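Subject: Protein entry, chain in single-letter code together with its fold tokens

Category: Structural biology, sequence-to-fold work with a learned token vocabulary.

Notation: Tokens come from a learned vocabulary of local backbone shapes, not from coordinates.

Start of record: The labelled sequence and token lines come straight after this line.
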Amino acid sequence: MYSYHYNHQGSVAALTDGGGRFYQHLQYLPYGEVLVDMHRGRLVSPYTFSAKEKDSESGYTDFGARYYTDNIMMWLSVDPMSDERPWISPYNYCQWNPIGRVDTWGMLDDHYFDENGNYLGDDGEGNAIRIISRSSFDLQTNNGEYVTSDLKGVSLLFSDHVESHGMSEKAQLKVYDHYNTTDNDLENTDKTDNMALSFNCNVEKSKKIIVNLEKNRKFSNNYYNIISEFIHEGNHDCKLLELGYDKYLETPRSIRESNAIDEQMNHPSWEKTDPDFRNGVMKYRAQNFE
């Protein structure tokens, strides 16, 4: 029986045997290449950098969302959500800051906003939307360069903050707008018969995306859910631009919705959404358009 011991970044630093004696000792270069590997026997740990399993044949490390190779210091495929960060290479590891950041799954991480809906940064792991005061965020960061794991403990999930502390409609919509891939304005509605998000256009040729903040609150903690919703509404927007207002409105709603759902389900964000969210979309489709 062996016990794993980890360094400050969660990488395996040592293995000890049942008697507490060192069996293997590991040290790493910043991007994960092994610098020191001393061990007393033939057995070596398959778990090394970031405590992920390294394939003995390929030398690639499996992070879940994609594979990483430390000798060239980058991912072997693009970030599934790389369109959210067009300003940086989709192959980058930890935004080229391996000292201050960690990457748990090989994809985007928890996003932090202040009480006014302003985006503050991320913490290197997870897929949640969290609300925190700007002063607390600054206190837990190193001049804004990276975020410590303590952030999760001093922040609240989006829906929890809204329910316990309140948050203005304008601020909530600003959080949503961070993920809005269209050029349409957002507007809240409290109509219970409305979908959580819906694309709205009329004969005056104005368009906007309607958000039912109350109805969508249960899905608002996972930003992949919100991204997926905007992929759906963005499809409607693209079709309107392609066909023009008259032809778009003449197209049967069942066809418009089916096309939007198809694009939504084929987008990389779909697999990262919550199971209840996916079930809701598929139920909506089955009950209305099949």
Q: What stands out?
A: Residues 199 and 209 are 5 Å apart (CA to CA). The two ends are 56 Å apart (CA to CA). Residues 179-289 form one domain.
